[in-house]
Fold this sequence. Notes:
Number of helices: 10
Helix content: 25-40%
Strand content: 25-35%
Number of strands: 15
Mean pLDDT: 83
Distance between the termini: 91 Å
Shape: globular
Radius of gyration: 27 Å
Structural class: alpha/beta
Amino acid sequence: MKKKTSKLSTGSLLALxxxxxxxxxxxxxxxxxxxxxxxxxxxxxxxxxxxxxAELVTAQIVPKKPVNIGSSGSSDLAKISLRFAGxxxxxxxxxxxxxxxxxxxxxxxxxxxxxxxxxxxxxTATIINTFVKNAKYNDLNASDEILLSLxxxxxxxxxxxxxxxxxxxxSGLDSILEACEKYxxxxxxxxxxxxxxxxxxETIQNVKxxxxxxxxxxxxxxxxxxxxxxTDRYIRILTEERVKHDIAQAKSDGAQIVVVNMLWNSxxxxxxxxxxxxxxxxxxxxxxxxIIGSNLTTAQPFEIITAFNSNGTKRDVPVVYxxxxxxxxxxxxxxxxxxxxxxxxxxYNLKENKIAxxxxxxxxxxxxxxxxxxxxSFVILDAGLPALDNMSDEQKESMNKTNAFLRETFSNLPMQxxxx
Length: 420
């Protein structure tokens, strides 16, 4: 008898072949459909350590995520997140609250609760102090430790300006430049070393962004301190001719977006003046894409103004008249103890070389005067989040009032602005 041999039928062979082909296809196709395996840790999903959780109040460290404008995913669109904070005035009173028994200054804690808002974006603020060593510290001259604390808390760029910045002559400007070089901090708006004040251009997401800063005027003491010399090479004073020249130069240098920071004289009136409106239109007509006002002791509204191009066409220019004061010790009025951190998330069309859209939002900020353990300190808090447990009822009420004031002032935000 012949031994019976087991053989696969033609149908079985076809089934086996199809199974093998399916397995190969899954190995090759599935990663393409669902994305290749990525072992990178997403820092946004990592919880804070137990030590950090013990030291920080969760309600005050929740970051506001950058807005994802659109969902095109096109390689022609660059998405840029910018954050603008108000004036930092590290005056004598604030300095006294940060110095220890050995005369060493520690001010990083002031900005701890807003750090998470800054880390995920290109963030900037304006400082109005000088840092002349071997000179008395006062409301103008300060310890340069504040610069390090700003850097450590996420600020990428500092503007330096204000009407009193030349009160110590060029030595005051030199002190700022030297301190920023010491701590490796980018600074713009001042100059003593070059024949002409340089234009600061930063490349962000492959887009060149120019940052320009102008002051409304210089104090008489500053004019005397430089013996009446022309201020143009040291600090920019706003004139129509000057801003047109600077913006044209910035674009000639390759800038694709021009941001202007306008420093007003310190006026307590929350109402927008005719001078402010006229100045904003001068800057917009000169070619600015975005204008941020500061140095007032109060926040002022956001609006869209109409600018005219050289060919007579119109375009929209977003402006904020004043962000308010980020840090100061003055608590004489409610408007002096609050400001906003402006969030701007924009899309830039690389193919058409123009801004496609901007999204505006803000975080309301409150300067908390903490007097625990018999020692005062000033801390910046998000006024839109729950108050800290160790705040007094009076402090909680003040924070709620500042939040209400800022909500009323910026009632038109958030806003999506499509650009022409």
